[in-house]
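1st attempt posting a full record on here, be nice pls
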Amino acid sequence: MAVVDLILFDVDGTLVDSQYTIVACMEAAFARHALPIPGAAAIRHTVGLSLVDGVAQLLETAGAGADLDPYPIADSYKDIYRARRAANPAPPHDPLYPGTRALLDGLLQQNRLIGVATGKSTRGVNSFIETHGLHRHFVTHQTVDTAPGKPDPTMIRQAAADAGTVPARVLMIGDTVYDMQMARAAGALSLGVAWGYHLPHALIAEGAQAILNSWDDLAPYLT
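the predicted structure (as tokens):
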């Protein structure tokens, strides 16, 4: 692989296992609007998209009607998510995957530039950082509040600019086809992870150079 100046991580399904929270809140949001509740696998498949785009995809998948407005459901999801967090304020919420903390701490100690590019809101990213004490780690936070959602390449382009480099020297690491499509569109490098919400063969088909089976597999790609 080429020289890597910036390592850009997806969050949900890559750094944190948030599927249980996401599935529960999405099911409750659809129920609130008396809509057919999508299956857990379908919900997991939308992780990585912006919330509105994910809801729109679920409405289409469930046959609930392409003309239904996804925004009220997305707003309900946010309300339910915040209420869930308020009712259970003590961490851990959405735990880090095994080895993630050691990896991020090690990269920080090595003075590697790292960032996040996620379908979360800025508020969601700030909560993730606060929960896990990652205030010093990331030089760029790319969210759906700062750029169009994945697979649009803007997040990677902005992250590269924040780090003083170019997309060709950015390594995007994620668990979904949307991460790989975004990297390909930006001309960035990409690696998939085997523990997330999309299947490894799908990530390879969308441009991942390789699949990490654990964080121990990452070092050879950081030239």
